[in-house]
Amino acid sequence: MRFMMKTKILILLALIALVIPLKAQEEDTLCQARLMVMYELTYREDTNHLDRANTEQMMLLIGDEVSFFQSYTAYRVLKALRRAMKDGVFAKQYNVKQEDIPRYQYKVYKNHPKGKVTMMDRVLMSGTFLYEEDYPSMTWEYTEDTATIAGHFTQKAVCDYGGRSWEAWFAPELPFNDGPYLFCGLPGLIIKVADTQDHYRFEMLSAEIPEEMYILWDDKDCIRTTKKAFFKAYDDNMANIIENGMERITPVDGNTNDIQHRLYLYAKTKNNPIELDRR
């Protein structure tokens, strides 16, 4: 029973960012999604165990002028939470599961506001931060390399961004100037993109016209900042978790489910962010 309670507490900490936006229920509709693209993200966040790769499904919604990218797990759980709260059963009946924890809680809006990329991301137990950068955010160099990927003819382009070198394969036959995460600016949908060390790799799983899906916007609870300031807040928070958890490496009474200890272990595995350049 003690194990289950502490595990649930940790899960709820991870879900807190998804619950907060439910209070207002006043999201603005930016536009209708014309295309839904599913990607599989394969990532290696821990440099001490680069042989261990994890995966998460990610979702890109493309509208006429704006696009939106986030974890599909986060989208699915938020949708379930909204339904549960609407039915008045959240407090007593919503079953929080381990698979309900999205590893990534960031949201990326491209060309909103116009000419900008907006990133919303959380700092654990601190809040949701919002910052903007120019759209598109990167400069590509085209190559003559071509390949057929996921049944589409693609061409290769490369760029340096965030302290990594990236290789992207885009499909000119899919005329969408977009892709996963912050990647965009190519004359065709990005089918696959990975850094040259293969620490982060996005691969398209499917692309389809969705039935009545909308790109929504809610910045009411966001802390507006700069990208540099967000990285500092995030990195400082992780460093504090690790520092505070050092004394609990051997948990009290041998309880390996001590919350502070589990947060310490979580933070220790996140030492290889997708953007290495934190300046």
Structure commentary:
By secondary structure, the protein is α+β, with helices and mostly antiparallel strands. The protein has a single domain (2-235), classed as Clam (outer membrane lipoprotein receptor (LolB), chain A). 24% of the residues lie in helices and 35% in strands. The chain is built from 5 helices and 14 strands. The strands form 2 sheets. Strands 8-9-10-11-12-2-3-4-5-6-7-14 form a 12-stranded mixed sheet. A two-stranded antiparallel ribbon has the order 1-13. Strand 6 (116-123) and strand 7 form a beta hairpin. Helix 4 crosses helix 5. The longest helix has 20 residues, at 227-246. It is globular.
Spell out the key features of this protein.
outer membrane lipoprotein receptor (LolB), chain A, 279 residues, 35% strand, globular, disordered N terminus, alpha+beta
